[in-house]
Amino acid sequence: MIPLKDYNPTRRFPLVSVAFIVLNVLVFILDRISGHYEPLLIETARGLVRTRQFVGGLSADFALVPAVLTSHPFLALPTVFSSMFLHGNWLHIASNMLYLWIFGNNVEDVLGRMRFIVFYFTCGLVAALAQVLSSPGSEIPMVGASGAVAGVMGAYLLLFPHARILTLVPIIFFFTFIEVPAFIIIGYWVLLQFLNANWLGGGELRGGVAYFAHIGGFVAGVVFMWLAGMGRSGGYRRL
User: Fold this and answer.
1) Which of 87, 177, 179, 235 could potentially form a cystine with 93 if both were Cys, beta carbons 3.0 to 4.6 Å apart?
2) Distances, alpha carbon 149 to alpha carbons 61, 63, 64, 177, 189, in Å
């Protein structure tokens, strides 16, 4: 299931969410321009497979490497935040920015712009630490806004569980559009993160995805909103 848009109006323009999206896209383009692809041979069960890997670019210096953070925490701490604006490929950034656009505007509307900025980076920080703690010796670089966006989704779930989300759903060989409540689409996403984290095992980025970062960011978003009392007392606009 792929969410496309929600039917949840905001009171004001989501300036911070849009700024984050623009900044992520600009950094991604700069990263692509400053790096290059090199031939790579990967050994598989069927033999050697020739592919390409992206090297250099901003990711070479600003990605978060768990082993570096655990051995030199003060020197590597800035990469916890810089890595939130780096992405591995077009699909990676497109999916993250789509989710941020759908869910970020309403969370920003409730929190206010300054609190939303603090919230976003806090969720990203917790997400990064969750992935690092799951595999502190990993030398695989971590990039992406997924952890922070997962926190936004956690907040949205607590605030607007019944908001209608237009969703693209594959049915065998066809696709259809349906409207589903937010708790279904977000709950489905969370379930996938837990299943993949347990099936694939360990804290390494299995299949190139940091599942524990997603889980950590989501939990941080839920806890943040719960502590703020915004999931209990009705201190927000009910739909």
Assistant:
1) 87
2) 23, 17, 17, 23, 12
